[in-house]
Amino acid sequence: MVDPVSRPVGASPKETRALLLLDQLPGVGPRRIRALVEAFGSAQGTLNAPHGTVAAMVGDQAARERANPAHRERVDTGLAEAERLAMRTCSWFDPTYPGGLLQLADPPPVLFLRGRIELLDRGGVSVVGSRRCTGRGKNLAHALGRALGGAGAPVVSGMALGIDAAAHRGTLAARGDTIAVVGRGADAPYPTSHGRLFRELLERGLVVSEFLPGTPPLPHHFPRRNRIMAALADTVVVVEAGARSGALITVEHALDLGRDVWAVPGPIDTPSCAGSNQLLTEGALPLVSVKSFVERVADLSAAPAGRRADAEETGGDSAEVTICDERTGTTCTVERPLDEPERRILRTLGEGPLHVDELAARAEIDVPVALALLVQLELVGAVEQMPGLLFRAA
């Protein structure tokens, strides 16, 4: 964690424009912009400073590019589009700029905001994971978003395919608050198949971008947006992530910021769970009960009863599961049969509350696999977690 960036007094639209112009300079990102502002007193002061003094900090080419009219045209066009779409711009110097972002070593100089601005500094839970996730992971993310949304805890994610979109949709289904941090300009959805989700987020949530409107979704934008997702939340949950998933970048930033990191245990032979399982071996908190997790991060008693996402009761050899369709964004509840390992766990729990280690041993299932199955069974209301990693049949 670093010292917060200083905030000059008397910030103006002119200074916001100057920050965006600095962001156009080749090789000059947020970290260097911060150093320039601190050295010259403001972004406008940096643009007006002598060539030699600026070149000493960022190089000759970047210093010369300050006079490039193409940069000014790009910034002015983006700002005009932001005004047309009623976007709010928020710079380092704005009192409403989120304090969590100022803890980053490279906070975005300017944010473009669309939707409910009041969600920006509320904290909450960042729910992240792989785009190429399993159906199990997608349904877990949807259920987690629904539970958090019902409890009044804002959900932060990245609107990507897979885990991100499922978490947003689950939160919206519970009429909860959700923030999408996007890796392109906030003028259009990405991917384009998420047009309906994007419109719902604009109407009922908040879309955040550090990029000018019209900026395309370039590959290097997504690692940048991950730091914002970590900084806007108090807690990060990795639902399902492969060994090279970008969600792990969010975790790195969260740890640097001192945020709590949780991971959902997954089957050890599933590649899309390799990264999230590895986090558990490195000290991430295991999320083995959605109910217990939500109670820890949100005050359920403060949420109106109509907004709580209670698990549906089930029993026997089948379970009711909420399925989220990634293409259409619709959800439905279907009854599916329990598989053999799940039935074995429930039969074993019929003997009474058991610690997960003893449960796994009696059911002849590896502990990581048992934890993953318990998460799924807890989501459908078939099991309940008690203090001390004890579980019992619901």
List keywords for this structure.
single chain; 16 helices; nine-stranded mixed β-sheet; alpha/beta; 394 residues
In brief:
With 394 residues, the protein is an alpha/beta fold.
- The arrangement of helices and strands along the chain is HHHHHHEEEHEHEHEHEHEHEHEEHEHHEE
Q: Give the number of DSSP strands.
A: 14
Helical content class: 40-55%
Question: How are strands sequenced across the largest beta sheet?
Answer: 1-2-6-5-4-3-7-8-9
Give unreliable regions as ranges: 300-316, 330-335
Overall pLDDT level: 86
Strand content: 15-25%
Q: Report, as a whole number of angstroms, the end-to-end distance.
A: 43 Å
Assign an overall shape: elongated
How many H/I helical runs?
16
**Alpha-carbon Rg, integer:** 23 Å
Could you walk me through the main structural features you see in this protein, from its secondary elements to its overall organization?
The protein has 394 residues and is of the alpha/beta class. It has helices at 13-23, 30-40, 43-48, 51-58, 60-64, 69-84, 135-150, 163-173, 195-204, 221-232, 247-256, 274-281, 290-297, 340-349, 356-363, 367-379; strands spanning 88-91, 110-115, 125-129, 155-157, 178-181, 206-209, 235-240, 260-263, 285-286, 318-324, 331-337, 354-355, 383-386, 390-393. A nine-stranded mixed beta sheet has the order 1-2-6-5-4-3-7-8-9, with helices on both faces. A three-stranded antiparallel beta sheet has the order 12-14-13. Strands 10-11 form a two-stranded antiparallel ribbon. A hairpin with a 3-residue loop joins β13 (383-386) and β14. α10 crosses α11 (247-256). The longest helix has 16 residues, at 69-84. Residues 300-316 and 330-335 have low confidence and may be disordered.
